[in-house]
Design a protein that fits this description.
The structure is a single chain. By secondary structure, this protein is α/β, with parallel strands linked by helices. The chain has helices spanning 12-23, 36-50, 66-80, 103-131, 142-146, 152-172, 190-193, 197-205, 215-225; strands at residues 3-6, 27-32, 56-60, 85-88, 134-139, 177-184, 237-240. The protein is 49% helix and 15% strand. The longest helix has 29 residues, at 103-131. The protein starts with a strand and ends in a 6-residue tail after the last strand. Bound molecules: NADP nicotinamide-adenine-dinucleotide phosphate.
């Protein structure tokens, strides 16, 4: 049985990806931030995943910390025997116009959104190399492609993920490891629920499909990218935004 490790999978897009990959037949390693409430939510996600007849376990780690990632990757390897797919999904926002943004809010977003992707790819690639195969999907954002006022920290982290994805695709292609990114637009999750109705309406004006995306619509593209159907796809960024940029 192949194993998929998904970071930040206790809610939102990550939880949805875990459930979709479980449905696809993957055993799933569900990472959650080390807090009691995230653990509770992750346990519920694991329970739902098991209903597809696969193995699902939860793993606590703050993915911005290399040592946490090291422990988690070892634990996942010990529990499941392999890591065939890695989805770097964990992310946060700390929005403000640059003039008002605090240095610590810049650093925090870079650490969670960007450094975590380095941590996880650096630790998982050697595992995949030994297996002689592996598929990595990094969750970027349209903010990384086009920028977004109020998100200089977030857009920097998401643009960096695109550069890292292409670099790892080049470095590890000969090892039969693919590395791609998805760039979601405005997706219905706890991250976007907090936006004001005014801002939501303004954002939707720019979307050709005139609606928010659903987490399932991100999960289905990730499902493709970690499948054998995408065996000759690497170093690509797939925008999933309902036609935001045309
Ligand atoms: P979400 O509901 O806030 O989920 C993000 C998850 O990551 C949460 O479970 C969160 O835990 C976890 N996380 C945060 N910091 C972590 C850390 N240091 N270690 C481990 N886990 C951590 O957001 P979402 O909308 O599903 O976003 C998922 C990904 O999609 C993110 O990378 C986001 O940037 C990206 N994205 C989202 C949208 C959108 O419209 N929703 C658009 C483009 C890209 P806590 O709840 O404890 O923080």
């Amino acid at each position: 049985m192949a194993t998929a490790l998904i970071t930040g999978a206790s809610q939102g897009i990550g939880a949805c990806i875990a459930k979709r990959l479980a449905k696809d037949g993957f055993d799933v390693a569900i990472n959650h931030y080390p807090s009691e409430s995230d653990k509770e939510k992750a346990l519920a996600v694991a329970e739902e995943c098991r209903s597809f007849g696969i193995k699902a376990e939860i793993f606590s780690a703050d993915v911005s910390k290399f040592a946490d990632c090291e422990n988690m990757v070892k634990a996942v390897k010990d529990t499941f025997g392999s890591i065939d797919a890695l989805v770097n999904n964990a992310g946060i926002t700390k929005d403000n116009l640059m003039a008002r943004m605090k240095e610590e809010d810049y650093d925090a977003v870079i650490a969670v959104n960007q450094k975590s992707v380095f941590n996880m790819m650096k630790l998982v690639c050697p595992v995949m190399m030994k297996q002689k195969h592996g598929k990595i999907v990094n969750v970027s954002s349209v903010a990384g492609l086009y920028g977004n006022a109020g998100q200089v920290n977030y857009s920097a982290s998401k643009a960096a993920i695109i550069g890292m994805t292409k670099t790892v695709a080049k470095e590890y292609g000969r090892k039969n490891i693919t590395c791609n990114a998805v760039a979601p637009g405005f997706i219905h999750t706890p991250m976007t629920d907090v936006l004001s109705d005014d801002l939501k309406a303004k954002m939707l004006d720019a979307v050709a499909l005139r609606r928010y995306g659903e987490p399932e619509e991100i999960a289905s593209v990730v499902s493709f990218l970690v499948s054998e159907d995408a065996s000759y796809v690497t170093g690509q960024v797939i925008e999933i935004s309902g036609g935001l940029s045309m």
